[in-house]
Design brief:
By secondary structure, the protein is an alpha+beta fold. It is 48% helix and 18% strand. Strand 4 and strand 5 form a beta hairpin. Residues 165-319 form the N-acetyltransferase domain.
Amino acid sequence: MTDHMQILGSLSLGSRTKRLSDLLMQQVDAIYQQQGIALNPSYFPLFTLINNEGPVSVTQAAQRLSVSHPAISKMTQKMIKEGLLHKQPHPSDQRVTVVAFTEKSLKISQQAQPIWQQIQWQLEQIMQQQQHPLLAAIDEFEQLLAQQSLTERVVTQLPAPQDAITIEPWQTEYKHDFTELNLAWLNQYFNGELTAIDQQALYHPEQYYLASGGYIFFARQGHHIVGTLALRLHDQQTMEISKMAVQPNQQGKGIGRQLMLTAINKAQQLAMTQVFLETNSALTRAMALYQHLGFQVVPHPQGQSSYPRADRYMTLALNTSSKD
């Protein structure tokens, strides 16, 4: 049977390297299981970094492995839960947290040394049978990407999209758009029902949001505002996301997602620990977006919403640690 990825050639490079990675991970995992090694193969780079260099911060690990900070943070959290790592203060800077081996990891490291040596020897035997040296080719490819990313190479050769969406902060001239977009949303889904809170928020957004430490964002397409969203300070650690509205003819194009990510990033920058929103379960597209972003449905802290139309209270915990 013809391999479709081979037919695609270089266009499938990312998919083929991932497929190869997945295959190697599966086979190494089978080796570990047969040898009684309780270690997820995907932990190997971080595990060996700490094994060789000792405790490191998440930031240090991300830099040493050339992996994103969120990816390393997520991995360390998993390894902590599995009893492989624990957090401790940096020996020379108490403000910084590092992750270090537990007794469980020390034992695994001792068990795994001969297994790693055999895996390395066998992989090198395979590569010696190849016509083209794989690791050297990967090194060269990574160096070329470091000089100029694939993103830069492609985007600079493409014409600028005419319908590009930009996210902008509050400007007084956009106040009318904020009101009208949300009124249109209420008319579309809830027969224009306005609560007292809606009236205050929509007609006096400067006082309701901005004056209390909140933000309002707008999605602009060309000369037109096509979407908006508000972020309101609830308390010192929590912000509410509300009043997301996108023009009906622009819905389904990812504008709501861009607005949501902007709000979440802003809340993280402000060191908030959580954002929440209230919505209606009938808004299936919005519900799917919130759940995809990681929001969880939880009981309303006041028992019921101040908005009669809202039947779902959703929260998202934020990773705001900046000293690890």
